Amino acid sequence: MTLSRRERWVALAAAGVLGLLLLDRVLITPLWHAWQVRSDRVLAMEREVWQTRQLLRQRRQIEADWRQRLDAGLAEPVSSAEAGLLNALEAAARQAGTQIVSLRPERPAAQDGVRPVRCRLVASGSLESLARFCWQLETQPGPLRLERVQISATDPARDAVNAQMEVSRIGLAPVEPSRKGR
Asked: Rounded CA gap, 119 and 103, in Å?
């Protein structure tokens, strides 16, 4: 069976198209995909390098902020942290015009070398004074955290409300001596 000249050109063109399709499937598309993946990885790495350089540039500011936090009481032992928390609560209540009705300090177990000191308290006053009290606590320079607040009205006619709160501060846990020979 001999092919005419026209049939040979058609067969050659079909073989060429099939060859190009095979080349695309086997070589070009996988290489293109691998190039795109590598390009995405390079962009991600460049972004990470840029973020790291930014962090290194901000290092002095971060260290200054950390020193300020340490100076504000983060590096205190638990007894000093508890005294600082009680003093902060009294000062904030005085500035806000709020009365602390009850106050109960707690010392939960230490975790990772720090021991939180918590105080459960009930404060009373107007809604505005309690809002100022919460703001005073949140803007304290020391490591103070307002963990929970529950507000209830005692006399709606007089704008008198009570707030049950849980406030905490962090203190360094005492280092326990290691036990050898056990």
From this structure: 7
Its pTM stands at 0.54
Helix H segments across 58-167? Answer: 59-69, 78-96, 127-138
Long-range contacts of 47-54 (CB under 8 A, 24+ apart): none
Count of CA atoms in the C-beta half-sphere (13 A) of 123: 30
Over residues 145-156, the pLDDT tens digits come to 888 999 998 877
Please give the Cα distance from 27 to 25 (Å, whole number).
6
Parallel/antiparallel/unpaired status of strands 144-155 and 114-126: unpaired
pLDDT tens across 34-87, in order? 999 999 999 999 999 999 999 888 998 888 887 776 666 555 666 777 788 888
Angle at 57 between CA 51 and CA 58, to 5 degrees: 90
Residue 152 neighbours by CB under 8 Å, 6+ apart: 161, 162, 163, 164
Do residues 156 and 126 touch, judged by C-beta distance below 8 A?
no
Is the C-alpha dihedral spanning 166, 172, 174, 178 positive or negative?
A: positive
Name which of 109, 136, 83 is nearest 165 in CA terms.
136
